[in-house]
Write a structure and sequence with these properties.
- It is a single chain.
- This protein is an alpha/beta fold.
- The chain is about 45% helix and about 10% strand.
- The protein contains eleven helices and six strands.
- The strands form two sheets. It has a three-stranded parallel sheet.
- The radius of gyration is 16 Å and the shape is globular.
Length: about 190
């Protein structure tokens, strides 16, 4: 699973999912938009939940192994990863990988709610934002393996270092999003485009 606000979803998200899918031989990757992010406030004039889901649908349309899953939206309230993992297990999905990036691994044991339970429910699949991140990711993974008995897979490969924040602030929309996502953003006048 790959969770996030996807505000907007971009090629960096798709690339991380593709790297994990290929390296770990995953059957599929669930793109799970956050309903309400617990650790950050959505920016003013942000895309609606429906907009974010439609953009994820468009981003993943050409990847048969990737699909939108609205489990967090349907649950409502704040979106905590541990709740989503519990719900996926209840649905019969028990061999789960949580795809995360550099910042998320580095803050995992300090910031994430119920981090100790999360590592019992899934394997962390870590993609580096930048190639220079690998040394610190290896150190942090070793620490979490010792302290939390976490299962962690470091997924090698070149990422696309772009953030949704950069795109909302006027980044190269057509360079870093799928054409269908850029079309949707422009047609609906999202983020000032």
């Amino acid at each position: 699973m790959l969770g996030g606000t996807f505000n907007p979803p971009h090629l960096g998200h798709l690339r991380a999912a593709e790297l994990a899918h290929d390296a770990l031989e995953l059957d599929r990757v669930l793109f799970i938009p956050t309903n309400i992010p617990p650790h950050k406030t959505l920016p003013e004039h942000t895309a609606t939940v429906d907009d974010r889901c439609e953009m994820v649908r468009r981003l993943t349309a050409a990847a048969p192994w990737a699909q939108l899953d609205t489990i967090e939206i349907e649950r409502g309230g704040a979106s905590y990863t541990v709740d989503t993992l519990r719900a996926l297990h209840a649905r019969g999905e028990d061999d789960l990988y949580l795809i995360i990036g550099t910042d998320m691994l580095l803050s995992f044991d300090r910031v994430w709610y119920a981090a100790d339970e999360i590592v019992q429910l899934c394997t962390l699949a870590v993609c580096a934002r930048m190639q220079d991140d690998w040394a610190m990711l290896r150190r942090k993974a070793a620490l979490l393996r010792r302290s939390m008995h976490a299962q962690i897979e470091l997924v090698q490969g070149a990422s696309i270092p772009i953030s949704s924040t950069e795109l909302r602030q006027g980044g190269a929309l057509r360079r870093y999003t799928a054409p269908a996502v850029a079309d949707y953003i422009e047609q609906h006048h999202l983020y000032g485009y």
